[in-house]
Every structure is written in structure tokens, then in C-alpha cells.
Amino acid sequence: MNRPSVPVTLSHLESLVREVERATPAPAELESIARAHRAGAVNLRHYLALRKHDLRRLQQALAELGLSSLGRAEGHVEATLRAVCVALRALAGRPPAETVLSGPDFAEGRSGLARNAEALLGPAPPGRAVRIMVTADAGLADDPSAVRELLGRGTTILRINCAHDGPEVWTRIAEHLRSAEKATGRACRVLMDLGGPKIRTGPLMPGPPVVTWKIRRDRRGSPLSPTTVWVVPAGARAPRMGAVLPFPAEWVAELEPGAELRFRDARGLHRALRITGREGEALRAEAERRAYVVPETRFHRSDADPGVCPAALPRAELPITLAEGDGLILTRSLEPGRPELRDPSGRLVEPGRVGCTEPALFSHVRPGHRVLLDDGKFEAEAVDVHPDRISLRIVRGPRPSGRLASEKGINVPDTALELPAFTEEDRRDLATVVRLADLVGMSFVQRPEDIRALRAELDRLGGGHLGLILKIETTHAFAAMPALLWAAMEHERAGVMIARGDLAVECGYQRLAEVQEELLWICEAAHLPAIWATQVLEGLAKNGVPSRAEVTDAAMGERAECVMLNKGPHILDAVSALDDILRRMEEHQSKKTAQLRALRSWSVGPGGDGG
Fold first, then answer.
1. Are 186 and 69 in the same domain?
2. 609 domain-assigned
3. 183-200, pLDDT tens digit by residue?
4. Which of 3, 194, 352, 605 has the highest CB neighbour number within 10 Å of its CB?
5. Hey, what long-range contacts does 137-140 have (CB within 8 A, 24 or more apart)?
6. Using one digit for the tens of pLDDT, what is the confidence trace for 532-575?
């Protein structure tokens, strides 16, 4: 094997060191950067200078010489380069060059990120360096015991999404959390995400009022367990997820656990609900068979009871069914849209119509641009664009067809909309955020000006102390990361959320793996904490069973400073599982560095048998 030329390799490396030195920001450039982030700002510039080059041949040469191949240099770029130069000079028989580091050394590279993570996200729990964030369900507003249980299982940050519910619900959730902190002795921070300029589908025509529920069955069709149905006074809300039947308050007040409600559903089938418990004003009931309840459905407590009908049932919207090749009309008007019309053979006669919440779409989208609907569930192409409508053709979607509902996300990755990330609604919400939160999340940030506008408003409201989280959700934000991070480092406490759901829609699932890696790397280079978000242990949180792929994905989250879980009926199990996974992985991995603790899984015996 030909040994790499030490002098040639040294010359290549020293030229990189000189280029990194030239990239060091002048003192005047650092004056706007918060003191906690100045070392990270210098290192970020060094990292960007280094990563302009294709280093693969140099890495191979260094590895063959038994030296660091620069694969873990993110947090201390200059120090890594100079350390390898010292080793190369020794191999070449040359004395070490006298140098003074302009960037962080190895210790500062490690401690700077850890210090910034603790300042922003709070201290990590004992035995686990990575924090766990959980998105709050609206039901937590009426369930303080569930909030306490979340903390007990290992949650260290509770996320409230301001795109949903309102100040009253947010306040109750935050108050329950503060009480839970006192009761458990565990600290937990509140992150409130501003809604931002999320582009969504508008309302759709309502269908007939009806409530139904499903029964989980095994492969033979036998029921696995009863389904929960909530019986509530009219106007009240069920404390948890599930079908909800509202009745007159005085009638509900007379019900007790053990009572049985009999009825004939909309199909004329005999059905029953058994009351099993009470939670506040709401009663929990169990159903063993599926039913369809309409306003005329009469419920009886006994054979002699004349019965009562539900007080007011929700009117479910009529979704639009879409198949590949179908047309769809997006309209500027937000009047309720309507589903498609088909002939008896199923052929599309007239495409469905639905409004779009962002008027700028109609002046910026061009024919041929991609329009992604429902978080990428459908990919469409703009065929014809008018000031008040856009004709789309579905080029990819569920097979044989799928359904599009209201309030579903719209992404236009080929279109530069230049929408402000900080909206008027965000301004109204910010007063509540400043009162309740420790951290504020900025959705759909794309320009440094977005960050500075939010900071100015926070200062005006007395919220300059809040930590700032940049949610990276678009390809435009990904392309602007160096400028966004620089603006974020002007704030004392800042970090990044890698919103992998929206990113996957925008950049395509094929690119998501490399995009999320590059975001982790550049955050580490800037010494800014990263949050690994979207669909972590999603199957476990929603269905109670994780897939093998999502367990592996959760383990990969160990390289971030925080991992976020979305809400679901099994969220407590998901928190416990994630806590266990992160604790195990911490013994094996730190960022990109493998931790070679002694393996307890095998022992070496005759013939290498495992034990």
C-alpha cells in the first residue's frame, strides 16, 4: 500500500488553516453578538470556510496516516486543524509552528454548546444529557394529573402550539405545569410556538350532523377492547380524545357509573353505551359495537324512560377525494369549498374547489410550480394561474385515492413568497407568550429581519429574557442558515428546531436525511442547541406500538440537545420509551463520536463464541 505523502498532506492542511484564519470575524463584527455566543460565531465562520471544500481525499490521506480525518471538527474547527498539523509536522520531522488560536479550543468547543443548551433548555436530568419536549394536547387544560405524570416520566419542556386553541387553554395548561413542578420537584420549561404564516386550505361545505366511532378488532373480527365515548353536558368539552355526545346538562347530571344507555342508531340497529366513570362534568362510556348517531337518535336509560336526543351534534365537513390525474381548484375566496363531482363510473366531471388562506399565492405561483397539499400527502402541479384561482393537477398521491380536508398545510417549494414570519396574529399572541412561556418558537423563519422584528416586539413587551427557537421548516430557511444563525446569536439564549415534517415536504423525503444531518452539524459549529422534532415515536404515541424504524430514528436524536414528541393517546408510554432509549444510547454515542464502553453483550470464548 502506498503511504500518503506527508509533506503534500501537510501543505494541503496548512493552506486550509490559513483560509480558516482569514475567515475569522473582525472584533467590530462580533459587537452585535451576545457574549455567550461569540466563540460560537467565530467557530461558525471557520466551519463555513472549511466546508467550502471537498475534503474527502484529504480525509482518506489523514486516516491512512493514523490521524484525525476531521470528521468531528464541528465544535472546534481551528483547534482540530492545528492539532493535526502538529502531528503531521512531527511525522515530517519538523518542529511545531507557534500559533495562537483565534477560535475555541477543544474544551470550549464542548463546554460552549453544553452551556448554551442549559441556558436555553434548562438543565438536563441526571443520567440523560438530551432533554425531552412534549407537545401539549388541549385536553391537558382540564387534566392536571396528566401534566404531573408527563413530568414524572421525564418531560423537561412542554410545547404549546399557538396555531391551535387560544389564551384561555394555554393559560390553564401553563398553570397546571407550574403546579406540577412544585408537586414533583421537577423543573420543566414552557415553549410557545407562534403560528407564523402557515398556508392552509380553507373551509369545506359541512355534511350532515353525525357522530360515529370505530371498534378495534383482531384479524378474526372479534373486538379487542371497548371504545371510549364521552357523554357531556351541552357546551362542555371531553377531557380526552374520543367520540363526544352532548346532552342536556340536567339529564347528564342524573347519570351515574353503571348506567346503560340504549338506542337505535341511524341505521335502525340496536346499540348500547355503558357508563364506567366520571371526570368532572363528563361521563366516560364504553361501546362494544360501532354506531352512527344523528340528531334524531333517542337514548333511553330504561324501558320506561321516554329518552332524550343529543343536544347538538357536529357537522363533519365533506372532504375532497383526489386521485392521481385529477384536477383541483384553489381559490382566493375562503367561502366553504365543495367536493368534486363524478359520474356513475367514477370519472371526474367537475374538480373540487377549496380556498387558500394566503392571497400572495395567487400572484407568485407560476404554471409548472409544485403545490404540495396536506403536508406532502398530495403533490400537484400548477396548470393555470389567475388572480382569484389556481388550477392544479394531482401528479402524486395515495392510491387509489385520498381525501383532502380543510386546514391542511400548503407548501410551494418552487415559489418565493417572501412572507413575513412574524404576523399580526403572532403580535396579538405574544402578550400571552411573554406572560406564560420561558421560550418562544418562531415558525417559518426565513430572513434575519424576521428574527430582529420578533426580538424588537419581545423587548417592547418586556419579554427580552425569553429564549428564542428558530423553527427551520422550508428550503429557503435551510439555504439561509448562516445568516439566520448569526442573527440568532445576537440574542443571549437561542437554538434551532429541525422541523423535519415540513422540511421533508419542501425538500423531498430523499433529501431529508442529508438536510437534517447538515443542520445538526452547522448548529454544533455555532454552539447552538438543536431540537430533533416531528414524528419521533409517532406510532407509539398514537397507536401504542412503535415501528423498528422509528425506534432507530429516536436513537439518532441523541445527537441533538433535545428531542420532541408530538401528542397522542399513548404519549406517556412514548416519553418513558424515549427516556430509556436516550439513556442507553448516551453510553454509545456523543454527537458523531462513538463511545467505546466495554460491551456487556458478548464475551470471548473458544472459537469466539458469544456469551
1. no
2. no
3. 999 999 999 999 988 899
4. 194
5. 137/241, 137/567, 137/571, 138/164, 138/165, 138/169, 139/238, 139/239, 139/240, 139/241, 140/173, 140/176
6. 998 899 999 998 999 999 999 999 999 999 999 999 999 999 99
Which amino acid would we find at residue 236? A
The number of helices, as runs of H, and strands, as runs of E, in the chain is: 19, 29
Contact 424, 396 (CB under 8 A): no
Number of domains in the chain: 4
Determine the pLDDT at residue 242.
82
Backbone phi, then psi, for 307, in 5-degree steps?
Answer: 90, 170
Query: Which cell numbers in the block locate residue 533?
Result: 422534532
pLDDT at 610: 44
Give the sign of the dihedral formed by CA 514, CA 519, CA 522, CA 523.
negative
Q: Is residue 601 part of a domain?
A: no
Residue 406 is placed in which grid cell? 380543510
The average pLDDT across 344-356 equals 94
Q: Are 201 and 410 in contact (CB under 8 A)?
A: yes
Pick 342 or 221 by higher pLDDT: 342
What type of residue is 224? L
Residue 269 and residue 249 in contact, taking contact as beta carbons nearer than 8 Å: no
Q: Is the pTM of this model over 0.90?
A: no
What's the domain range around 260? 210-315
285, 276 contact by CB (below 8 A): yes
Confidence at residue 607, expressed as pLDDT on a 0 to 100 scale:
54
Asked if residues 295 and 289 have their Cβ atoms less than 8 Å apart, the reply is no
> What is the rounded CA–CA span in Å between residue 575 and residue 159?
14
